[in-house]
């Protein structure tokens, strides 16, 4: 599943930044159709299938309501599910650490006040 997840991350990151929900092109639609119909159905764990579905639903709602923080939190949830499916044990990885790999000013936007 590693190559499938690698391609998923590549497609998502190529579309991040200013894209609206209706900006998805036919190639991205075809990618996700194949991902869901073949790759996740045949190769992903049940936890990963559930995580993907939750990510899809949460992200759609976040886009519709303009809740960027919810979309980012959903992204970390999916990243953790992918890593778990690949065998990584992240119990000692604090929330936000995966996002800090991509969002250099993460703490300025997502830290909770003391």
Q: State mean pLDDT (0 to 100 scale).
A: 82
Number of strands: 0
Q: Fraction of residues in helices?
A: 55-70%
Strand content: under 5%
What is the number of domains?
1
Categorize the overall geometry. Answer: globular
Map the helices and strands.
Elements: H1 2-15, H2 26-43, H3 46-65, H4 68-85, H5 97-100, H6 106-110
Question: What can you see in these coordinates?
Answer:
By secondary structure, this protein is mainly alpha-helical. It has one domain (2-16, 23-110). The chain has 6 helices and no strands. α3 runs antiparallel to α4. The longest helix has 20 residues, at 46-65. It is globular, with a radius of gyration of 14 Å. The protein starts with a helix and ends with a helix.
Question: What are the salient characteristics of this protein?
Answer:
69% helix, 0% strand, 6 helices, 114 residues
What is shown here, in short?
The chain has 114 residues and is an all-alpha fold.
